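Predict the 3D structure for this chain.
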Amino acid sequence: MPVKIRLQRRGKKGKPFYWIVAADSRAKRDGKFLEKLGTYNPNTNPATIELNLDSAVKWLHFGAQPTETARAILSYKGALLKHHLDGGVRKGALTQEQADEKLAKWLEEKASKVNAKKDKLSKEKEAAKAKAIAAEKEVNAKRLAAAEEAAKAAEAEAAQEEAVAEAEAPATDENTQETEA
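Done. Predicted structure below.
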């Protein structure tokens, strides 16, 4: 029975969520599987991956072949490195302690890279938010200035209309007085 380590799609339309599973290669994509090894959520930035490292390495030892995407995920989480180091231990090139030390060092470096990316993304998000707030304040200030200018123009227009009305009013009073006389 040829075994594949592959992704099994879950989630709703437009929001995929995957299980990482060991399954018979003849089974349907979302069908029967032998063991669930972890989850993969590409909707987050960076993508969220949870993987049972020991189970994944166990299936690799049994001869399971990962698909391209599953291989990338296993490599990202260190399962392929652990499988490689276990091969070195079996051949006698390394001791188990040396292999564990190399894996721990690699996982620590990987975690620091991921945390650096998360920090960078959060800083960019905060900077974009601050920029948007500054732009909004600028637009509001322009809007207030335009409203004040419009109010001043309306006052000036009203004052001008009053002056014209007052100037016309005495003239009409004189005309009415002349007609009465």
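The chain has four helices and five strands.
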